[in-house]
Task: structure prediction
Amino acid sequence: MVRNDGELCLNTTRMPTKQRLLLCAAVSFAEKGFTETSMRELAAAIGVKTASLYNHFPSKNAILDHMLAEYSQHSAANFNRRSILDELRENPTAEGIVNCLQTSFDSAVVEYDLKILCVILQEQYRNPVMREYVSQNMILFAENNLLKVINALKELGVIRQDADPDFWMKACSSLFYAFASRYLLGIGDASPHYSGMDMLGMLRALFERMLAENRV
Result:
């Protein structure tokens, strides 16, 4: 039976059916597994007949496709040139770069997105569509965000114009992927440190090195 007592499924009775379905599907896919969850169980979890779900999505795969599209949209929504420049103009340090990357997450949907992230990581080894998403969206998203930050640092005259971003982009995406995997395994930043420091510590160390090697 699909759990309906998770934080994402509380007080959803007044939501439209489609939104309730997506919230409860995110919880179930993350906690029970995408393959192991049926449309019938999802319907029972939100208190509707199974047939009514097909008015919103033709299949379980279509639900997942919609979630991935939302995840990509949420990830990019708040990360823009103006907000990056404003932050780095005030704080052109490793801490400022970390702040830029953190503010790219919309707090209103972060719990929902973290559930989707769990599903992505769980399914990537058995679902070729998910593997492609990880390589073409998740990893590239982290790299593109840092590229925007590096370009802003160049525009502000903090680092040299000829600084090559490729190494730093690859290193940053690797750290984000490591963080996502740790989240899936239930290993948070309060746990024994990974490689001697937590996720934010590793990012700060990376960006301090980047600034030190490329500063004007």
